[in-house]
Amino acid sequence: MSPVFPMLTVLSMFYYMCLRRRARTATRGEMNSRRAIESNTRALPINVEIVQYAKEVLDFSSHYGSENSMSYTMWNLAGIPNVYPSSGDFTQTAVFRTYGTWWDHCPSARLPFKRTPPTFCSQDYVELAFEEPVYPTAVHILETYHPGAVVRILACSANPYSQNPPAEVRWEILWSEAPTKVNGPQARQFTPCIKQINFPTNLIRLEVNSSLLDYYTELDAVVLHGVKERPVLSLKTSMIDMNDIDEDEDEEKYDCGMDTLNKQFSIVTLREWPTNGYFDKLPYELIQLILSHLTVPDLCRLAQTCKLLYQHCCDPLQYIHLSLQPYWARINDTSLEYLQSRCTLIQWLNLSWTGNRGAISVSGFSRFLKVCGSELVRLELSCGHFLNETCLEVITEMCPNLQELNLSSCDKIPPQAFNHIAKVGSLKRLILYRTKVEQTALLSILNFCSELQHLSLGSCVMIEDYDLIASMMGAKCKKLRSLDLWRCKNITESGIAELASGCQLLEELDLGWCPTLQSSTGCFTNLARKLPNLQKLFLTANRSVCDTDIEELAANCTHLRQLDILGTRMVSPASLRKLLESCKDLSLLDVSFCSQIDNRVVLELNANFPNVFIKKSFTQ
């Protein structure tokens, strides 16, 4: 046979791989990405493109605004733009609760879970429903202030308006990228190049990471472009990047690892190899240490190689700390069932964002905790909308050693269910942000959980009398170090006095957007004098904060690291200079919308105190 034919065969295979690569996935990044070189796709036959704004906001993890208002809330993402193309800080936009790394450097900061895959960096999310299911051709995100937070866009196969829920819910990543630093806070239309999917969707999810931002990102609207009929690609490729082949293989490995997670956990038949290489000559502990650096999907794959590594990968010591949040889209009852035998010694468990739309049932969650809950110390369940009263009852019964419980944004739990938490007397951290906890249940929790050190009650709108709650904290929670009362509507100087007198170990206090607190009552002066250990104090949007309060902080709270006095009209540059000179550890000072602090003052303070990030927001 002519030597030409083998060469033609090789070239044919190479060309087939390249075409398969281009047909299976879209280019990554924006249109100017290196991967997009000379790639030209066109849909055949031509469909009429449908352009639609979000009809409804279905779910989200956090927002800056109030539960009873539209200002700075995620609900502003529904409908046509309110602000774009204007730039600046506007109340009509959607804003998440945090930005930057400041929240990682305060007393309430939590230790991260190990084994988080490098491709997962999401901190918050919002899910949007559109009127018509389409095959997406483009997604436009209108960002009006400090853009660059969006790191992932996903599409769901489930139609939120369908009367018949599907047997299987699929999520596909349309686009993802690591966080990037965008130069300047100006508005932009962000249009990444998205991957083509094989099902129509009218449910889009944005995931964000604001760690590189200098201030809160603000989103105005999301536009979904798509066609009703599935497009067939016609490809013209004049240049192939060899690195694309390797990237494709890595992506397939990751998808395979999670798509077949349940299957891999259940595998019991392994190949018979004559030897285990050199691994059987290593100490057991050393192999365990090496494997501790692998992600969960990697452990699943490695378990299929030989019996020795199967034994190591299934050892409960590998699952002392387990975060399933990065795999939220694929975790279900079957996953938990297969993990049970491996998690008998688990101490930290992160199930945040998992289980929604029926993926995890109450019975499946209960079965897992009955087997694996006895050693649990930390349980993260943020945005777990499958949770109900039965789940909380099981947690309190099966987790006697529990010290940390995160129920942030679990807004489907009924109010009476929170009474069960009072049974966990060992609790040191409790996060109830955006839950329906009521006053009676919270009083019971505070009475019986006297070991509490960190408590978050931000945006808990069903509590009628925060003064009574503060009085109970002062009487029972002497070890409290951080307290979040963000947007509590009725705490007064009386409650603050009780709190400051009883909880003198407080290092962090968030009283942002608490309109009933007035500086003229002496409440802030009282805080400064009785809480000398304060490192973080947020008095956001309290118009009455004055020079006297700032000077008291400078005199008594010299360990202060973060101070937010956004919106005050009563603070002068002179008092801020005293504060900056006294508090040597201060790293964050937010003076946005402080009428006496103009840009000239901020520039002067920045020059004299370069180690302090002084934020001055604006509106155009």
UniProtKB/TrEMBL annotation:
Keywords linked to the UniProt accession: Leucine-rich repeat, Ubl conjugation pathway
Gene Ontology biological process terms from the UniProt entry: SCF-dependent proteasomal ubiquitin-dependent protein catabolic process
Keyword field contains Amino-acid biosynthesis: no
PANTHER family for the chain: F-BOX_LRR-REPEAT PROTEIN 4, PARTNER OF PAIRED, ISOFORM B-RELATED
The protein's name in its UniProt record: FBXL4 protein
GO cellular component, one term: SCF ubiquitin ligase complex
Domain F-box stretches: 276-331
SUPFAM superfamilies to which the protein is assigned, alphabetical: F-box domain, RNI-like
Gene3D superfamilies reported in the protein's UniProt record: 1.20.1280.50, Ribonuclease Inhibitor
CDD domains: F-box_FBXL4
InterPro entries (alphabetical): F-box-like_dom_sf, F-box_dom, FBXL15_LRR, Leu-rich_rpt_Cys-con_subtyp, LRR_dom_sf
Species whose genome carries this gene: Smutsornis africanus (Double-banded courser)
Keyword set includes Zinc: no
